[in-house]
Amino acid sequence: MKKISADDLRKMYIDFFVSKGHSQISGASLIPENDPTVLFTTAGMHPLVPYILGAEHPQGKRLTDYQKCIRTGDIDSVGDPHHLTFFEMLGNWSLGDYFKEEAIEFSYEFLTKVLEIDPEKISVTVFKGDDEVPRDEIAAKKWESLGIPKERIYYKGREDNWWGPAGETGPCGPDSEMFYDTGRPKCGPDCQPGCSCGKYFEIWNDVFMGYRKEADGTYHEMERKCIDTGMGIERTVAVLNGKKSVYETEIFSGLLSGIESLCGKKYGDDEEDDKSMRIIADHTRTSVFILGDQKGIAPSNVGQGYILRRLIRRAVRHAKKLGINKPFLSELAKIVIDQYGKPYPELIEHRDFIDNELAKEEEKFSDTLVKGEREFAKMLPNLMKGNSRVISGRLAFKLYDTYGFPIELTQELAKENGFTVDVAGFNEAFEKHQELSRAGAEQQFKGGLADHSEQTTALHTATHLLHAALRKVLGTHVGQKGSNITAERLRFDFTHPEPMTKEQLKEVEDLVNDAIKRDLPVTVKTETLDEARSEGAIAFFDSKYGEKVTVYTIGDFSKEVCGGPHVTHTGDMGHFRILKEQSSSAGVRRIKAVLEK
Question: pLDDT value at position 278?
Protein backbone atom coordinates (compact mmCIF):
# COMPACT_ATOMS: atom_id res chain seq x y z
CA MET A 1 0.00 0.00 0.00
CA LYS A 2 1.29 3.43 -0.95
CA LYS A 3 2.24 5.97 1.71
CA ILE A 4 1.13 9.30 0.29
CA SER A 5 0.51 12.91 1.29
CA ALA A 6 -2.74 14.89 1.06
CA ASP A 7 -1.40 16.67 -2.06
CA ASP A 8 -0.59 13.29 -3.65
CA LEU A 9 -4.04 11.86 -2.88
CA ARG A 10 -5.83 14.95 -4.23
CA LYS A 11 -3.93 14.70 -7.54
CA MET A 12 -4.19 10.91 -7.88
CA TYR A 13 -7.95 10.97 -7.34
CA ILE A 14 -8.65 13.76 -9.81
CA ASP A 15 -6.30 12.26 -12.44
CA PHE A 16 -7.97 8.85 -12.10
CA PHE A 17 -11.50 10.12 -12.61
CA VAL A 18 -10.50 12.47 -15.42
CA SER A 19 -9.05 9.36 -17.13
CA LYS A 20 -12.51 7.78 -16.73
CA GLY A 21 -14.20 10.62 -18.64
CA HIS A 22 -15.04 12.91 -15.72
CA SER A 23 -14.63 16.70 -15.96
CA GLN A 24 -12.81 18.32 -13.06
CA ILE A 25 -14.88 21.15 -11.61
CA SER A 26 -13.91 23.84 -9.07
CA GLY A 27 -14.85 23.25 -5.46
CA ALA A 28 -17.48 25.65 -4.15
CA SER A 29 -17.42 28.22 -1.34
CA LEU A 30 -17.76 27.04 2.27
CA ILE A 31 -20.82 29.31 2.48
CA PRO A 32 -23.75 27.56 0.75
CA GLU A 33 -25.53 29.41 -2.04
CA ASN A 34 -29.23 30.12 -1.46
CA ASP A 35 -29.53 27.27 1.03
CA PRO A 36 -31.47 27.77 4.28
CA THR A 37 -30.71 24.29 5.64
CA VAL A 38 -27.09 24.59 6.81
CA LEU A 39 -24.52 27.23 7.79
CA PHE A 40 -21.61 25.65 5.90
CA THR A 41 -20.98 23.36 2.94
CA THR A 42 -20.96 19.96 4.63
CA ALA A 43 -20.15 17.57 1.78
CA GLY A 44 -18.92 17.54 -1.80
CA MET A 45 -22.41 16.91 -3.13
CA HIS A 46 -23.88 19.95 -1.37
CA PRO A 47 -23.14 22.50 -4.17
CA LEU A 48 -24.29 19.98 -6.82
CA VAL A 49 -27.84 19.48 -5.54
CA PRO A 50 -29.49 21.51 -8.38
CA TYR A 51 -27.82 19.19 -10.90
CA ILE A 52 -28.71 16.04 -8.98
CA LEU A 53 -32.30 17.33 -9.06
CA GLY A 54 -32.18 17.52 -12.84
CA ALA A 55 -30.51 20.75 -14.04
CA GLU A 56 -27.89 20.26 -16.77
CA HIS A 57 -24.35 20.84 -15.52
CA PRO A 58 -22.21 22.94 -17.92
CA GLN A 59 -19.32 20.44 -17.57
CA GLY A 60 -21.38 17.38 -18.52
CA LYS A 61 -22.71 14.26 -16.78
CA ARG A 62 -19.48 12.95 -15.24
CA LEU A 63 -17.82 15.25 -12.70
CA THR A 64 -15.04 15.12 -10.12
CA ASP A 65 -13.58 17.61 -7.63
CA TYR A 66 -12.12 18.23 -4.19
CA GLN A 67 -14.29 20.27 -1.85
CA LYS A 68 -13.58 22.08 1.42
CA CYS A 69 -16.20 21.20 4.04
CA ILE A 70 -17.10 22.12 7.62
CA ARG A 71 -19.28 20.21 10.06
CA THR A 72 -20.01 21.89 13.37
CA GLY A 73 -22.34 19.41 15.06
CA ASP A 74 -19.67 18.15 17.42
CA ILE A 75 -17.26 21.05 18.01
CA ASP A 76 -17.07 20.00 21.66
CA SER A 77 -15.77 16.56 20.60
CA VAL A 78 -12.79 18.11 18.81
CA GLY A 79 -9.77 17.43 20.94
CA ASP A 80 -9.96 13.65 20.75
CA PRO A 81 -7.66 11.97 18.19
CA HIS A 82 -10.32 11.75 15.45
CA HIS A 83 -12.79 14.67 15.25
CA LEU A 84 -12.30 17.58 12.85
CA THR A 85 -14.44 20.62 12.04
CA PHE A 86 -12.78 21.34 8.66
CA PHE A 87 -12.01 18.53 6.22
CA GLU A 88 -11.51 18.00 2.49
CA MET A 89 -13.80 15.72 0.51
CA LEU A 90 -12.94 14.05 -2.78
CA GLY A 91 -15.90 13.17 -4.97
CA ASN A 92 -17.05 11.86 -8.32
CA TRP A 93 -20.57 12.13 -9.72
CA SER A 94 -22.70 10.65 -12.43
CA LEU A 95 -25.70 12.80 -13.34
CA GLY A 96 -27.93 10.32 -15.14
CA ASP A 97 -25.00 8.53 -16.81
CA TYR A 98 -23.44 5.41 -15.19
CA PHE A 99 -24.94 3.90 -12.07
CA LYS A 100 -24.31 1.32 -9.36
CA GLU A 101 -22.10 -1.31 -10.96
CA GLU A 102 -19.75 1.09 -12.75
CA ALA A 103 -19.42 3.29 -9.64
CA ILE A 104 -18.39 0.25 -7.59
CA GLU A 105 -15.90 -0.79 -10.30
CA PHE A 106 -14.29 2.67 -10.23
CA SER A 107 -14.06 2.59 -6.43
CA TYR A 108 -12.47 -0.85 -6.33
CA GLU A 109 -9.98 -0.02 -9.09
CA PHE A 110 -8.88 3.20 -7.41
CA LEU A 111 -8.46 1.55 -4.01
CA THR A 112 -6.64 -1.57 -5.15
CA LYS A 113 -4.76 -0.45 -8.29
CA VAL A 114 -4.02 3.26 -7.74
CA LEU A 115 -3.68 3.30 -3.95
CA GLU A 116 -2.47 -0.33 -3.92
CA ILE A 117 -4.58 -1.33 -0.91
CA ASP A 118 -4.55 -5.08 -0.32
CA PRO A 119 -8.04 -6.37 -1.35
CA GLU A 120 -7.91 -8.67 1.70
CA LYS A 121 -8.05 -5.55 3.88
CA ILE A 122 -11.30 -4.27 2.33
CA SER A 123 -14.78 -4.91 3.76
CA VAL A 124 -17.97 -3.31 2.46
CA THR A 125 -21.52 -2.62 3.63
CA VAL A 126 -24.68 -2.52 1.51
CA PHE A 127 -28.35 -1.72 2.22
CA LYS A 128 -30.24 -4.63 3.76
CA GLY A 129 -33.65 -3.42 2.56
CA ASP A 130 -36.90 -2.66 4.37
CA ASP A 131 -40.64 -2.40 3.72
CA GLU A 132 -40.19 0.49 1.26
CA VAL A 133 -37.00 -0.34 -0.67
CA PRO A 134 -35.64 -3.84 -1.43
CA ARG A 135 -32.32 -5.33 -0.32
CA ASP A 136 -29.42 -4.16 -2.51
CA GLU A 137 -28.42 -7.43 -4.11
CA ILE A 138 -27.02 -5.65 -7.20
CA ALA A 139 -24.32 -3.87 -5.16
CA ALA A 140 -23.55 -7.03 -3.15
CA LYS A 141 -23.18 -9.18 -6.28
CA LYS A 142 -20.97 -6.57 -7.91
CA TRP A 143 -18.61 -6.51 -4.93
CA GLU A 144 -18.54 -10.31 -4.94
CA SER A 145 -17.71 -10.41 -8.66
CA LEU A 146 -14.71 -8.13 -7.98
CA GLY A 147 -13.33 -10.51 -5.36
CA ILE A 148 -14.81 -9.36 -2.05
CA PRO A 149 -16.03 -12.57 -0.37
CA LYS A 150 -19.53 -12.85 1.08
CA GLU A 151 -18.22 -12.88 4.65
CA ARG A 152 -16.80 -9.34 4.15
CA ILE A 153 -20.03 -7.97 2.62
CA TYR A 154 -22.30 -6.74 5.41
CA TYR A 155 -25.99 -5.87 5.00
CA LYS A 156 -27.00 -2.88 7.13
CA GLY A 157 -30.13 -0.85 7.74
CA ARG A 158 -31.25 2.63 6.85
CA GLU A 159 -29.37 4.27 9.73
CA ASP A 160 -26.07 3.05 8.22
CA ASN A 161 -26.57 2.56 4.50
CA TRP A 162 -29.08 5.09 3.26
CA TRP A 163 -28.54 8.69 2.19
CA GLY A 164 -31.13 11.46 2.15
CA PRO A 165 -33.17 13.14 1.17
CA ALA A 166 -31.52 16.38 2.23
CA GLY A 167 -34.91 17.90 3.05
CA GLU A 168 -38.31 16.36 3.65
CA THR A 169 -38.56 15.28 0.00
CA GLY A 170 -36.17 14.73 -2.90
CA PRO A 171 -33.50 12.39 -4.27
CA CYS A 172 -32.18 9.68 -1.99
CA GLY A 173 -31.05 6.10 -2.07
CA PRO A 174 -29.01 3.25 -0.60
CA ASP A 175 -25.26 3.48 -0.33
CA SER A 176 -22.27 1.20 -0.08
CA GLU A 177 -19.45 2.03 2.30
CA MET A 178 -15.87 0.77 2.04
CA PHE A 179 -13.82 -0.01 5.16
CA TYR A 180 -10.12 -0.70 5.69
CA ASP A 181 -9.19 -3.38 8.22
CA THR A 182 -6.46 -1.88 10.43
CA GLY A 183 -5.38 -5.32 11.66
CA ARG A 184 -6.48 -4.75 15.24
CA PRO A 185 -8.26 -7.67 16.90
CA LYS A 186 -12.06 -7.67 16.96
CA CYS A 187 -13.47 -6.16 20.14
CA GLY A 188 -16.09 -8.92 20.37
CA PRO A 189 -18.20 -11.39 18.37
CA ASP A 190 -20.39 -8.57 16.97
CA CYS A 191 -17.46 -6.42 15.78
CA GLN A 192 -17.94 -5.44 12.13
CA PRO A 193 -17.63 -2.37 9.88
CA GLY A 194 -19.19 0.58 11.69
CA CYS A 195 -17.95 -0.58 15.11
CA SER A 196 -16.27 2.23 17.06
CA CYS A 197 -13.38 0.12 18.39
CA GLY A 198 -11.04 1.21 15.60
CA LYS A 199 -10.60 -2.11 13.78
CA TYR A 200 -12.51 -0.89 10.70
CA PHE A 201 -11.79 2.51 9.20
CA GLU A 202 -14.35 3.90 6.72
CA ILE A 203 -12.59 5.40 3.70
CA TRP A 204 -15.21 5.82 0.97
CA ASN A 205 -18.95 5.93 0.38
CA ASP A 206 -20.84 5.40 -2.89
CA VAL A 207 -24.41 6.75 -2.80
CA PHE A 208 -26.86 5.36 -5.36
CA MET A 209 -29.49 8.07 -5.73
CA GLY A 210 -32.14 6.07 -7.51
CA TYR A 211 -35.20 7.06 -5.46
CA ARG A 212 -37.23 10.14 -4.73
CA LYS A 213 -39.07 10.53 -1.44
CA GLU A 214 -42.48 12.15 -1.85
CA ALA A 215 -44.35 14.39 0.59
CA ASP A 216 -46.58 11.47 1.65
CA GLY A 217 -43.52 9.48 2.75
CA THR A 218 -43.50 7.04 -0.17
CA TYR A 219 -40.43 6.28 -2.31
CA HIS A 220 -40.49 6.16 -6.10
CA GLU A 221 -37.72 4.91 -8.33
CA MET A 222 -36.32 7.73 -10.48
CA GLU A 223 -35.82 7.42 -14.21
CA ARG A 224 -32.68 9.59 -14.06
CA LYS A 225 -30.43 7.97 -11.48
CA CYS A 226 -27.34 9.65 -10.05
CA ILE A 227 -24.13 8.64 -8.30
CA ASP A 228 -22.61 10.70 -5.49
CA THR A 229 -19.42 9.54 -3.80
CA GLY A 230 -17.25 10.89 -1.01
CA MET A 231 -13.75 10.16 0.25
CA GLY A 232 -12.31 12.21 3.12
CA ILE A 233 -8.70 13.21 2.48
CA GLU A 234 -7.62 13.35 6.13
CA ARG A 235 -9.03 9.93 7.08
CA THR A 236 -7.70 8.23 3.96
CA VAL A 237 -4.20 9.69 4.39
CA ALA A 238 -4.20 8.39 7.98
CA VAL A 239 -5.14 4.88 6.78
CA LEU A 240 -2.63 4.83 3.92
CA ASN A 241 0.19 5.86 6.23
CA GLY A 242 -0.70 3.42 9.01
CA LYS A 243 -1.57 6.17 11.50
CA LYS A 244 -4.13 5.72 14.27
CA SER A 245 -5.11 9.40 14.20
CA VAL A 246 -5.41 12.13 11.56
CA TYR A 247 -3.32 14.32 13.88
CA GLU A 248 -0.35 11.97 13.42
CA THR A 249 -0.22 12.64 9.66
CA GLU A 250 1.76 15.27 7.73
CA ILE A 251 -1.48 17.24 7.41
CA PHE A 252 -1.09 18.44 11.01
CA SER A 253 2.67 18.10 11.53
CA GLY A 254 3.42 21.75 10.61
CA LEU A 255 0.70 23.17 12.84
CA LEU A 256 1.62 20.97 15.80
CA SER A 257 5.31 21.92 15.43
CA GLY A 258 4.28 25.58 15.44
CA ILE A 259 2.25 25.07 18.62
CA GLU A 260 5.15 23.20 20.25
CA SER A 261 7.46 26.16 19.51
CA LEU A 262 4.98 28.59 21.04
CA CYS A 263 4.38 26.68 24.29
CA GLY A 264 7.68 24.81 24.76
CA LYS A 265 5.87 21.47 25.15
CA LYS A 266 6.09 18.32 23.04
CA TYR A 267 3.07 16.69 21.40
CA GLY A 268 2.75 13.14 22.74
CA ASP A 269 4.15 13.81 26.22
CA ASP A 270 0.92 14.58 28.08
CA GLU A 271 -2.65 13.67 27.07
CA GLU A 272 -4.24 16.87 28.44
CA ASP A 273 -1.68 19.04 26.62
CA ASP A 274 -2.14 16.93 23.48
CA LYS A 275 -5.90 17.58 23.61
CA SER A 276 -5.32 21.34 23.79
CA MET A 277 -2.83 21.16 20.90
CA ARG A 278 -5.32 19.23 18.74
CA ILE A 279 -8.06 21.79 19.48
CA ILE A 280 -5.76 24.70 18.57
CA ALA A 281 -4.59 22.96 15.37
CA ASP A 282 -8.09 22.06 14.17
CA HIS A 283 -9.75 25.36 15.11
CA THR A 284 -6.96 27.46 13.60
CA ARG A 285 -7.12 25.57 10.32
CA THR A 286 -10.92 25.88 10.19
CA SER A 287 -10.85 29.59 11.09
CA VAL A 288 -8.32 30.33 8.34
CA PHE A 289 -10.52 28.59 5.76
CA ILE A 290 -13.67 30.47 6.87
CA LEU A 291 -11.90 33.83 6.83
CA GLY A 292 -10.08 33.04 3.59
CA ASP A 293 -13.14 31.78 1.74
CA GLN A 294 -14.37 33.41 -1.49
CA LYS A 295 -17.19 34.86 0.63
CA GLY A 296 -14.88 35.56 3.61
CA ILE A 297 -16.89 35.72 6.82
CA ALA A 298 -15.75 37.84 9.78
CA PRO A 299 -16.34 36.88 13.45
CA SER A 300 -19.76 38.00 14.74
CA ASN A 301 -22.56 36.92 17.05
CA VAL A 302 -24.77 35.30 14.40
CA GLY A 303 -24.64 32.45 11.90
CA GLN A 304 -21.29 31.53 10.38
CA GLY A 305 -19.62 34.44 12.15
CA TYR A 306 -20.70 33.07 15.53
CA ILE A 307 -19.21 29.64 14.77
CA LEU A 308 -15.98 31.34 13.68
CA ARG A 309 -15.85 33.41 16.89
CA ARG A 310 -16.46 30.29 18.96
CA LEU A 311 -13.62 28.42 17.22
CA ILE A 312 -11.14 31.28 17.63
CA ARG A 313 -12.00 31.78 21.30
CA ARG A 314 -11.79 28.07 22.06
CA ALA A 315 -8.34 27.98 20.43
CA VAL A 316 -7.19 31.00 22.49
CA ARG A 317 -8.53 29.46 25.68
CA HIS A 318 -6.58 26.24 25.11
CA ALA A 319 -3.47 28.23 24.19
CA LYS A 320 -3.67 29.87 27.61
CA LYS A 321 -3.91 26.40 29.20
CA LEU A 322 -0.62 25.58 27.45
CA GLY A 323 0.97 28.79 28.76
CA ILE A 324 0.74 30.77 25.51
CA ASN A 325 -0.16 34.28 26.67
CA LYS A 326 0.72 36.35 23.61
CA PRO A 327 -1.11 36.71 20.25
CA PHE A 328 -0.30 33.57 18.24
CA LEU A 329 -3.02 32.89 15.66
CA SER A 330 -1.46 34.92 12.83
CA GLU A 331 1.73 32.91 13.24
CA LEU A 332 -0.17 29.60 12.95
CA ALA A 333 -2.34 30.98 10.13
CA LYS A 334 0.81 31.48 8.04
CA ILE A 335 1.52 27.73 8.34
CA VAL A 336 -2.00 26.91 7.09
CA ILE A 337 -1.83 29.38 4.19
CA ASP A 338 1.60 28.12 3.09
CA GLN A 339 0.37 24.51 3.25
CA TYR A 340 -2.91 25.02 1.37
CA GLY A 341 -2.22 28.05 -0.83
CA LYS A 342 -1.73 26.01 -4.01
CA PRO A 343 -4.99 24.00 -4.03
CA TYR A 344 -6.90 26.92 -2.44
CA PRO A 345 -5.41 30.19 -3.82
CA GLU A 346 -8.17 32.23 -2.17
CA LEU A 347 -6.24 31.83 1.11
CA ILE A 348 -3.26 33.71 -0.36
CA GLU A 349 -5.55 36.32 -1.91
CA HIS A 350 -7.23 37.00 1.47
CA ARG A 351 -4.09 36.70 3.62
CA ASP A 352 -4.35 40.29 4.98
CA PHE A 353 -8.02 39.88 5.88
CA ILE A 354 -7.24 36.59 7.68
CA ASP A 355 -4.39 38.16 9.69
CA ASN A 356 -6.33 41.32 10.61
CA GLU A 357 -9.49 39.52 11.72
CA LEU A 358 -7.58 36.95 13.79
CA ALA A 359 -5.59 39.71 15.52
CA LYS A 360 -8.77 41.74 16.22
CA GLU A 361 -10.63 38.73 17.62
CA GLU A 362 -7.71 37.71 19.86
CA GLU A 363 -7.63 41.24 21.27
CA LYS A 364 -11.43 41.29 21.77
CA PHE A 365 -11.32 38.00 23.62
CA SER A 366 -8.55 39.30 25.89
CA ASP A 367 -10.87 42.21 26.73
CA THR A 368 -13.68 39.70 27.37
CA LEU A 369 -11.51 37.80 29.82
CA VAL A 370 -10.66 41.05 31.65
CA LYS A 371 -14.39 41.92 31.86
CA GLY A 372 -15.20 38.43 33.12
CA GLU A 373 -12.55 38.69 35.83
CA ARG A 374 -13.99 42.08 36.82
CA GLU A 375 -17.52 40.63 37.05
CA PHE A 376 -16.22 37.74 39.13
CA ALA A 377 -14.50 40.21 41.49
CA LYS A 378 -17.84 42.08 41.87
CA MET A 379 -19.65 38.83 42.77
CA LEU A 380 -16.98 37.71 45.24
CA PRO A 381 -17.97 39.81 48.32
CA ASN A 382 -21.52 38.40 48.27
CA LEU A 383 -20.21 34.89 47.73
CA MET A 384 -17.85 35.27 50.71
CA LYS A 385 -20.76 36.28 52.97
CA GLY A 386 -22.57 32.98 52.37
CA ASN A 387 -21.90 29.69 54.16
CA SER A 388 -21.38 27.69 50.96
CA ARG A 389 -18.04 27.62 49.22
CA VAL A 390 -19.58 26.32 45.96
CA ILE A 391 -20.34 28.66 43.07
CA SER A 392 -23.64 27.61 41.56
CA GLY A 393 -23.84 26.27 38.02
CA ARG A 394 -26.38 29.00 37.22
CA LEU A 395 -23.91 31.73 38.18
CA ALA A 396 -21.04 30.06 36.32
CA PHE A 397 -23.27 29.80 33.24
CA LYS A 398 -24.23 33.47 33.53
CA LEU A 399 -20.53 34.40 33.37
CA TYR A 400 -20.20 32.18 30.30
CA ASP A 401 -23.39 33.22 28.51
CA THR A 402 -23.34 36.96 29.28
CA TYR A 403 -19.62 37.69 29.25
CA GLY A 404 -18.19 34.78 27.22
CA PHE A 405 -16.18 33.71 30.28
CA PRO A 406 -15.09 30.04 29.99
CA ILE A 407 -16.01 27.62 32.79
CA GLU A 408 -12.34 26.60 33.17
CA LEU A 409 -11.38 30.17 34.05
CA THR A 410 -14.28 30.46 36.48
CA GLN A 411 -12.96 27.30 38.14
CA GLU A 412 -9.44 28.77 38.32
CA LEU A 413 -10.64 32.02 39.92
CA ALA A 414 -12.89 30.06 42.27
CA LYS A 415 -9.98 27.88 43.40
CA GLU A 416 -7.78 30.93 44.02
CA ASN A 417 -10.46 32.25 46.39
CA GLY A 418 -11.25 28.99 48.19
CA PHE A 419 -14.32 28.03 46.16
CA THR A 420 -15.33 25.17 43.89
CA VAL A 421 -17.81 25.32 41.00
CA ASP A 422 -20.95 23.23 40.55
CA VAL A 423 -19.82 21.90 37.15
CA ALA A 424 -22.78 19.50 36.90
CA GLY A 425 -25.16 22.46 37.35
CA PHE A 426 -23.22 24.43 34.75
CA ASN A 427 -23.43 21.51 32.29
CA GLU A 428 -27.16 21.23 32.89
CA ALA A 429 -27.66 24.95 32.15
CA PHE A 430 -25.38 24.64 29.12
CA GLU A 431 -27.33 21.62 27.82
CA LYS A 432 -30.61 23.51 28.19
CA HIS A 433 -29.09 26.42 26.26
CA GLN A 434 -27.95 24.01 23.49
CA GLU A 435 -31.41 22.45 23.26
CA LEU A 436 -32.97 25.90 22.80
CA SER A 437 -30.33 26.75 20.19
CA ARG A 438 -30.97 23.48 18.34
CA ALA A 439 -34.72 24.08 18.39
CA GLY A 440 -34.13 27.57 17.03
CA ALA A 441 -31.83 26.21 14.34
CA GLU A 442 -34.39 23.59 13.33
CA GLN A 443 -36.98 26.36 13.00
CA GLN A 444 -34.56 28.64 11.15
CA PHE A 445 -33.44 25.97 8.72
CA LYS A 446 -36.69 24.11 8.27
CA GLY A 447 -37.06 23.17 4.63
CA GLY A 448 -34.58 21.37 2.48
CA LEU A 449 -32.05 21.41 -0.28
CA ALA A 450 -34.64 19.79 -2.50
CA ASP A 451 -37.06 22.70 -2.15
CA HIS A 452 -36.94 24.06 -5.67
CA SER A 453 -40.58 25.07 -5.53
CA GLU A 454 -42.23 27.78 -7.60
CA GLN A 455 -41.82 30.23 -4.69
CA THR A 456 -38.12 29.60 -4.06
CA THR A 457 -37.36 29.63 -7.78
CA ALA A 458 -39.02 33.06 -8.12
CA LEU A 459 -37.20 34.36 -5.03
CA HIS A 460 -33.88 33.07 -6.36
CA THR A 461 -34.49 34.94 -9.61
CA ALA A 462 -35.38 38.01 -7.54
CA THR A 463 -31.90 37.94 -5.92
CA HIS A 464 -30.41 38.46 -9.40
CA LEU A 465 -32.70 41.43 -10.03
CA LEU A 466 -31.91 42.83 -6.57
CA HIS A 467 -28.16 42.41 -7.12
CA ALA A 468 -28.31 44.25 -10.44
CA ALA A 469 -30.51 47.02 -8.99
CA LEU A 470 -28.15 47.55 -6.02
CA ARG A 471 -25.18 47.93 -8.37
CA LYS A 472 -27.14 50.46 -10.44
CA VAL A 473 -28.16 52.53 -7.38
CA LEU A 474 -25.12 52.19 -5.08
CA GLY A 475 -22.27 51.44 -7.51
CA THR A 476 -20.28 48.52 -8.90
CA HIS A 477 -18.46 47.99 -5.58
CA VAL A 478 -21.58 46.06 -4.54
CA GLY A 479 -20.98 42.32 -4.63
CA GLN A 480 -22.97 39.40 -3.28
CA LYS A 481 -21.58 38.00 -0.01
CA GLY A 482 -24.24 35.35 0.53
CA SER A 483 -27.92 34.64 0.21
CA ASN A 484 -30.49 32.54 2.02
CA ILE A 485 -33.85 31.63 0.57
CA THR A 486 -36.90 29.99 2.13
CA ALA A 487 -40.33 29.58 0.55
CA GLU A 488 -41.42 32.80 2.30
CA ARG A 489 -38.59 35.30 1.76
CA LEU A 490 -35.11 36.02 0.45
CA ARG A 491 -32.13 37.29 2.41
CA PHE A 492 -29.29 38.91 0.48
CA ASP A 493 -25.90 40.01 1.89
CA PHE A 494 -23.79 42.46 -0.11
CA THR A 495 -20.71 44.65 0.22
CA HIS A 496 -21.51 48.29 1.07
CA PRO A 497 -19.91 50.48 3.77
CA GLU A 498 -22.97 52.27 5.18
CA PRO A 499 -26.74 51.96 5.74
CA MET A 500 -28.93 52.64 2.70
CA THR A 501 -31.21 55.66 2.72
CA LYS A 502 -34.99 55.38 2.34
CA GLU A 503 -34.65 56.96 -1.10
CA GLN A 504 -32.06 54.37 -2.20
CA LEU A 505 -34.22 51.49 -0.96
CA LYS A 506 -37.25 52.88 -2.83
CA GLU A 507 -35.19 53.25 -6.01
CA VAL A 508 -33.96 49.64 -5.75
CA GLU A 509 -37.50 48.37 -5.15
CA ASP A 510 -38.81 50.35 -8.14
CA LEU A 511 -36.06 49.05 -10.45
CA VAL A 512 -36.77 45.42 -9.51
CA ASN A 513 -40.54 45.84 -9.89
CA ASP A 514 -40.08 47.54 -13.24
CA ALA A 515 -37.99 44.57 -14.44
CA ILE A 516 -40.73 42.19 -13.25
CA LYS A 517 -43.47 44.28 -14.87
CA ARG A 518 -41.66 44.28 -18.23
CA ASP A 519 -41.93 40.45 -18.26
CA LEU A 520 -38.29 40.02 -19.23
CA PRO A 521 -37.19 36.65 -20.66
CA VAL A 522 -34.68 34.59 -18.66
CA THR A 523 -32.17 32.86 -20.92
CA VAL A 524 -29.33 30.49 -20.10
CA LYS A 525 -25.99 29.92 -21.82
CA THR A 526 -22.93 27.75 -21.16
CA GLU A 527 -19.47 29.25 -21.72
CA THR A 528 -16.09 29.74 -20.03
CA LEU A 529 -15.82 32.17 -17.14
CA ASP A 530 -13.56 34.47 -19.20
CA GLU A 531 -16.15 34.57 -22.00
CA ALA A 532 -18.92 35.30 -19.48
CA ARG A 533 -16.96 38.16 -17.90
CA SER A 534 -16.07 39.62 -21.29
CA GLU A 535 -19.82 39.83 -21.98
CA GLY A 536 -20.39 41.71 -18.71
CA ALA A 537 -21.62 38.83 -16.55
CA ILE A 538 -21.26 39.25 -12.77
CA ALA A 539 -19.14 36.46 -11.27
CA PHE A 540 -17.44 36.64 -7.88
CA PHE A 541 -15.34 33.49 -7.99
CA ASP A 542 -12.54 31.94 -10.03
CA SER A 543 -12.67 28.66 -11.91
CA LYS A 544 -10.07 26.42 -13.44
CA TYR A 545 -8.84 27.55 -16.86
CA GLY A 546 -11.34 26.67 -19.57
CA GLU A 547 -13.97 25.42 -17.11
CA LYS A 548 -17.51 25.99 -18.33
CA VAL A 549 -20.06 27.95 -16.29
CA THR A 550 -23.78 28.63 -16.62
CA VAL A 551 -24.79 32.25 -17.30
CA TYR A 552 -28.35 33.46 -16.70
CA THR A 553 -29.43 36.62 -18.51
CA ILE A 554 -32.61 38.47 -17.51
CA GLY A 555 -33.53 40.69 -20.47
CA ASP A 556 -31.40 43.85 -20.56
CA PHE A 557 -31.29 44.01 -16.75
CA SER A 558 -29.06 41.27 -15.31
CA LYS A 559 -26.36 38.84 -16.45
CA GLU A 560 -24.88 36.58 -13.78
CA VAL A 561 -23.01 33.29 -13.42
CA CYS A 562 -25.19 30.93 -11.35
CA GLY A 563 -26.32 27.32 -10.97
CA GLY A 564 -30.07 27.98 -10.83
CA PRO A 565 -33.01 27.50 -10.50
CA HIS A 566 -34.74 30.45 -12.27
CA VAL A 567 -38.10 31.37 -13.75
CA THR A 568 -38.38 31.48 -17.56
CA HIS A 569 -39.72 35.07 -17.57
CA THR A 570 -40.26 37.68 -14.87
CA GLY A 571 -43.90 38.63 -15.41
CA ASP A 572 -45.48 36.17 -12.96
CA MET A 573 -43.04 36.67 -10.07
CA GLY A 574 -45.23 39.07 -8.09
CA HIS A 575 -44.56 42.41 -6.41
CA PHE A 576 -41.10 42.82 -4.85
CA ARG A 577 -41.00 44.46 -1.42
CA ILE A 578 -38.01 45.10 0.86
CA LEU A 579 -38.83 44.30 4.48
CA LYS A 580 -35.59 45.32 6.13
CA GLU A 581 -32.06 46.62 5.45
CA GLN A 582 -29.48 46.18 8.19
CA SER A 583 -25.83 45.47 8.97
CA SER A 584 -24.65 41.88 8.63
CA SER A 585 -20.99 42.41 9.56
CA ALA A 586 -18.30 45.07 9.02
CA GLY A 587 -18.68 46.41 5.46
CA VAL A 588 -21.54 44.01 4.66
CA ARG A 589 -25.25 44.95 4.55
CA ARG A 590 -28.24 42.61 4.54
CA ILE A 591 -31.62 42.95 2.81
CA LYS A 592 -34.67 40.82 3.56
CA ALA A 593 -37.41 40.93 0.94
CA VAL A 594 -40.55 39.15 -0.27
CA LEU A 595 -42.54 38.62 -3.44
CA GLU A 596 -46.24 39.36 -2.97
CA LYS A 597 -48.82 37.98 -5.36
Answer: 97
